[in-house]
Amino acid sequence: MSGDRTKVRAKGLERRFGHLLAVAGVSFEVYEGEVFGLLGPNGAGKTTLVRMLSGVLTPTTGDATVDGASVVREPERVKARIGYATQEASVYPFLTVRENLEFRAAMYLEGPPALDAVEDALARFDLGGVADRRAGELSGGWRQRLSLAQAVVHRPRVAFLDEPTTGLDPLARRAVWDLVYAEAARGMSALVTTHYMDEAERCHRVGLIYGGRRVALGTPQELKAAVAARYRFYRVPGADPADWRGRAGVVDAWQRGGAVRIVLEPDAPAPANATPEEPTMEDVFVLKIREEDAHALV
Ligand SMILES: Nc1ncnc2c1ncn2[C@@H]1O[C@H](COP(=O)(O)OP(=O)(O)O)[C@@H](O)[C@H]1O
Ligand SMILES: [Mg+2]
């Protein structure tokens, strides 16, 4: 088992809540040392998926193995092996940073190894300077840093981080991604959920999820190349995207700075004054969702 470099293997994971199909047959893999981004808008099913992968929510159908253990048959084993940072950065506000880490470490380790793990996490996450501060006094960025440190204090092989950057400023977001990469560099696999499209660029590979379904999977470069093959992107002078919407061959148009960005069908002629542009992850996301919605209508 230890020679297996696939650390997460989700196979047809599905979860219903009453009539709602929150996650619909999602399959993907995460490899050793990989930073895998699970991207999708609010309500897409990211948290439901992560809860299933973490062994805390039983799938309606399908299964996943996480570091060799089945989430359906061995959820307790899965929970013992992974690191999990929930969306609500669950730190105890009245405990100090060190006490929060000690509390979490005690779930997995005891005695000197537990204390070593805490000191090590304080160092790795640069939390030494605030070790004796109450968690409730930390800023959002530092609270997230603590939440991340807690999730991996026992050095799991796999960590699930649910929206670790939501609500943070750009510098704090970057710090969180640097810390995730530092953990991945020692071989940990990280599955990180986010609804910030630009954060896809920071991942080795990305799965886009929408309406509970996986609508795209690949490296950011692959996903952008796929939309570049299907659409053309241009910047045109002007201040009114409505001039463009609905014209033959125009898929979408929106204002960007002092110009209008337009997306054309591949065979549509380029308008005069148009400057070609490369697709962004935001284009990937918007166009994939548009395609899904169009399918849903037929
Ligand atoms: N415990 C639950 N009971 C009923 N519906 C739920 C429950 N958890 C999530 N949902 C619904 O499932 C869908 C996906 O939710 P969620 O996984 O939280 O999405 P995301 O994390 O991508 O925002 C939403 O429509 C949400 O309202
Ligand atoms: Mg969520």
TrEMBL record:
Does the record carry Endoplasmic reticulum as a key word? no
Gene3D superfamilies (UniProt xref):
P-loop containing nucleotide triphosphate hydrolases
Q: What keywords tag this UniProt record?
A: ATP-binding, Nucleotide-binding
Q: Which domain of life is it from?
A: Bacteria
Record GO terms (molecular function): ATP binding; ATP hydrolysis activity
SMART domains, per the entry: AAA (SM00382)
**What InterPro entries would the database entry show?**
AAA+_ATPase (IPR003593), ABC_transporter-like_ATP-bd (IPR003439), ABC_transporter-like_CS (IPR017871), P-loop_NTPase (IPR027417)
Q: Which residues form the ABC transporter domain?
A: 8-236
Please indicate if the UniProt record lists Metal-binding as a keyword. Answer: no
Which PANTHER family does this one have?
Answer: ABC TRANSPORTER G FAMILY MEMBER 20 ISOFORM X1, ATP-BINDING CASSETTE, SUB-FAMILY H, MEMBER 1
In its UniProt entry, what is this protein called? ABC transporter ATP-binding protein
